[in-house]
Amino acid sequence: MKNILTPVLLAIISSTAAYADTYKLDPDHSNARFAIGHFGTSTNHGGFYNLTGDITVDPQRGTGQLKVIIPVASVNTGNQQFNEHLKNADLFNVEQFPTMTFASTEWNYVDGMPQQVTGDLSLLGVSHPVTLTATQFNCYQSPMFDGATVCGGDFEAVIDRSQWGMDYLVELGIPKEVKLSIQVEAVKQ
To answer: Which tens digit of pLDDT belongs to each residue from 89-108?
Structure first.
């Protein structure tokens, strides 16, 4: 009996492990963007580019892992002077903190698709939990990667920037609330 169970258990473990697929972020199709009010008149937008990281997706078990590394110096608002101000010590302090990261701690699936990803956002040397909501997610065979499977989606959250010590101009009317949108596409490894 022992000899029969061992191969069966190994087959079950192997087939279960096969469900978890690992993907490497494609920096050309991954970015993090932000939107923040500007004295109640308009909304400033900007983004970070050339993101790196990995995703592991396991819809069978309802789990996953996402690690995104965001190079802060890549910030782009379309205005060079504003870009440089965002990089200084008043805001993102690129010299001391060149990257921010998001590392997932929990995934929530509905019908085999990720709906929310909770994790730790590290910014300015401080980490706080953030829950990103998936606004879309899909996997497809990519003609750009010789038919390799690519999975990704759009995720968003509203965060309170003051939790990370980014209080610049809060007392003068710039909101604490920032809409954060993260777009990731990753190639199966």
So the answer is: 999 999 999 999 999 999 99
Helices assigned H by DSSP within 18-132 = 80-87
38: domain CATH number is 2.40.128.110
- Other Cβ atoms less than 10 A from the Cβ of 70: the count is 25
Percent of all residues in the chain with a pLDDT value above 90, rounded to a whole number:
77
Q: Which structural domain range is residue 78 located in?
A: 20-188
**Residue 146: beta bridge partners?**
none
Q: How many C-beta atoms surround the C-beta of residue 98 within 10 A?
A: 13
Structural domain total, the chain: 1
What is the spatial distance between Cα 84 and Cα 74, in angstroms, rounded to a whole number? 10
- Specify if 133 maps to a domain: yes
Residue 10 within any structural domain of the chain: no
**pLDDT digit string, tens, across residues 108-162:** 999 888 999 999 999 999 999 999 999 999 999 999 999 999 999 999 999 999 9
